[in-house]
Amino acid sequence: LEGLDPEQRVAAGAEPGPLLVVAGPGTGKTRTLTHRLAYLVAGRGLAAERCLAVTFTRRACAELQERLDQLVPGDARRMLVTTFHGLGLRILREQHEAVGLGPGFRIADEAERLELLGELLGCPEREARRLLPELVRRKRARAARWPDLDAEASEVAGPLARYEAAMRKRDLVDLDDLLALPVMLLAGDPAMAARYRERFGFVAVDEYQDVDELQYRLLRLLTTPDANLCVIGDPDQAIYGFRGADVGFFLRFTEDFPAATVVRLTRNYRSSPAIVAGALQAIAPSTLVAGRELAAMAGQDAPARITVHQAASDLAEAEFVVQTVDRLLGGASFLSLDSGRADGGAEHGLSFADVAVLYRTDAQSGPLAEALDRAGMPFQKRSHDRLGDRPAVRALVRALRDPAVVPGPPAGDRSLQERLAAAAAAATDDMAGAAEALDLLAPLAARCGDDLDRFLAELALGDEVDTWDPRADRVSLLTLHAAKGLEFPVVFLVGCEDGLLPLRFGPRRSPEEAAEERRLFFVGMTRARSHLFLSHARKRAWRGSVREAEPSPFLADLEAALLDHARATARRRPQPAATGDQLSFL
Fold first, then answer.
1. DSSP label at 52?
2. What's the pLDDT tens digit per position in 160-210?
3. CA-CA distance, 61 to 80, in Å (whole number)?
4. Quick check: 540 and 500 in contact, CB under 8 A?
5. How far apart are CA 257 and CA 289, in angstroms?
6. What is the pLDDT of residues 87-121, one digit of tens each?
7. How far is CA 349 from the centre of its chain?
8. 472 DSSP assignment
9. Which of 41, 311, 376, 385 is least enclosed, having the fewest CB within 10 Å?
10. Rounded Cα distance, 181 and 187, in Å
11. How many CB atoms are located within 10 Å of the residue 507 CB?
12. How far apart are CA 44 and CA 103, in angstroms?
């Protein structure tokens, strides 16, 4: 428990039993969670094999594992640190016979599911794509009520049964099965559920505000009301409602676990006082944390204000980003120095890796990427979508599994990396897309060696942002959802316009949707350590046309005293005065 602040120490050293930690942004959430695990193992004698830590992304898992390796190096690798889907996959691997699967079952990608559904129903891909979400909804609803089902008939009950039978015949599951099948299995077999509860004597859940109904039910099956369960998160950072997440499970934790201890972390070690103050003002109208407190403990030498910029268009907004990065870094090219746009003095030793540009939709990245490319600034672009959903990635994986394209067994003379390179070289329709897909998949292939099954399983479970490289000296272009959990000295939050942030959902926004959009703005602001730029454009190209745009209403909630309104101007170096006769070259 050494090195923790008083609030973190109370949370990490709490007595066994249910524990709810409400952790604001930058308050040391991951630090507290890992110290809690380490304390129970090293200080309270809990066997490491009985510890289960669950989070939402492979990147978050890697960070948890790395910190545990430093705290309890002899025990860390005996703990199970995984994602919810990874936990479901492990249960299905162990209990595959009980759900009618073989030991080598595989996770189908979307293209395989659509093809199978089209064959079963004799319909084109467009119709299969329309029906698939309804089948998923029905499957999840059935698992959530299992085994207490009603006898209601459904127009998709027949197609669902046929689809699942065909999947089992091919020894396939989909992503939703990784949660639905374990929930149904444990709910229908209390003895098996009891064995898993005995196996995992301590359960920790990161980002608990983002659990959905099936994840919540799986946790309840693995715990009892007095269980040694620690959940940590912040309801004001609940931003995954579009994926089915329900912040209500966080808010009712003390009802589900009446003996729970509640601890709040309120010291922010990430952002400057101006950024913390602005973020609190932004979230105040719809905060879910009564008496929300957040005290800035760092960044006292950072700018005293948040910069707000109005651009003429989305193209001008991109140029503002490039010019400002150029100035902060002291000039990224000889042209910058020669024109006087930058003076060669980087602020606080900043580099490209210290800069992130965040936006609401992936469609906004085009002008930004083009402007950075023209300026010769390296960047990496990531979204929060599934990595396997990228068309170029799907095409590369299909080629990898096709012996006619990439011959040779997976464990043959060539590694997965070499076979992926051969698949990319064979691409003729989209060479640029294949090269980008190869760049994204190469690190995963390197980790998996020649194990194709492991490679395909991890690919199916991973988000695109899992491939973000924190060591690369590049500007990061990220959707706001992908930026969750990251932090940067310099953050540009672009597109702060009504209709874009908050994003409009049809003619009207429900109160729940509007509140989640505000939480997304809060998350974006609190990614910044010292420099925060909020920009909006008067005109923006959107879905094939150019439209007028108004500033986001969220900006109106920020006090004027916190804001600095800036213009994009190319600062030129003054020319030195003549000191004597100048000889002509000619």
1. E
2. 888 889 999 999 999 999 999 999 999 999 999 999 999 999 999 999 999
3. 10
4. yes
5. 19
6. 999 999 999 999 999 998 999 888 888 888 888 88
7. 28
8. S
9. 376
10. 10
11. 5
12. 37
